[in-house]
Amino acid sequence: MTKAIFPGTFDPFTIGHASIVKRALTFIDEVVIAIGINDKKNAHLAIQQREEMIRRYYRNEPRVKVASYSSLTIDFAQEVGANIIIRGIRTVKDFEYEETIADVNRKLTGIETILLFTEPEMTCVSSTIVRELMRYGKDVSRFLPEGMEQPKR
User: Does the annotation count 90 as an active-site position?
Assistant: First the structure.
């Protein structure tokens, strides 16, 4: 069984992230969306809100789980029994950075990393941008996957 974690984002519910999970499920048995715990007090959404949004969106997809983590990604992958780490990338610069990290992870732990580009129309939209727009009360519904409501503050 192939089990992967998709870590490293505080708000993994934008269209780009959803497309990566959808593509990953075509060749991976189970994906754990791993939400990094943000210790900052000014986080727009609490960890519980993010988890609930993701669970609600994937409620009809039993192969997607949600978990929060505060340790290193590779430690968390081993903790949940994942043998693959999925990383979403938007630019060539992201790719070069992630490829280097993937090589280090593979050498240290033997865990493979799969790098998936987000859809071309989402290359300029990151969860950071969505978070900032939400902070200022802007409508971000066009950046959310179809069927997902804009979160309430």
Answer: yes
